[in-house]
Amino acid sequence: MKRVIKFRAISYRTCDFVFGSLVEDKEEFFILSDGEKFHVVKESIDQFTGMIDGYGVEIYESDVLRRIGKGTNEYFVYFDNGLFLLQNQFGRWGTLEKYFEICISFDLKAEVIGNFYETPELCEHALPNQS
């Protein structure tokens, strides 16, 4: 099975996420989407993980996940050394794939409840205390 490679980033023009192919041109970054080229904020570029949540929402780097209807732990999605990983307030949790394996084995589902850019307050709960 092939994984879809696509990205999202915040457009300078629309100030919203745009989704599509990532292009770098002389230290500037663009997302190509539906025949349009969007100049995007470099720091907001996130890759699609290839997974969707329990409501059919695509999961990207910098998203915050929670189990549907259970638990209070939020998990921050990030990419490191070729893996999509999860981190919560206690530190690195493990891979996104392992999280979904556990959810499936207990008949649970995960949902995207926000992301680093639009709901940064959620990241306070999903990331370890930095003090």
UniProtKB/TrEMBL annotation:
- Domain (YopX protein) spans 39-123
Q: Which Pfam families has this protein been placed in?
A: YopX (PF09643)
SUPFAM superfamilies this protein is in? YopX-like
Note the InterPro entries from the entry: YopX-like_C, YopX_protein
Highest taxon above the source species: Bacteria
Write down what this protein is called.
YopX protein
Question: What organism does this protein naturally occur in?
Answer: Breznakibacter xylanolyticus
Q: What is the lineage of its organism?
A: Bacteria, Pseudomonadati, Bacteroidota, Bacteroidia, Marinilabiliales
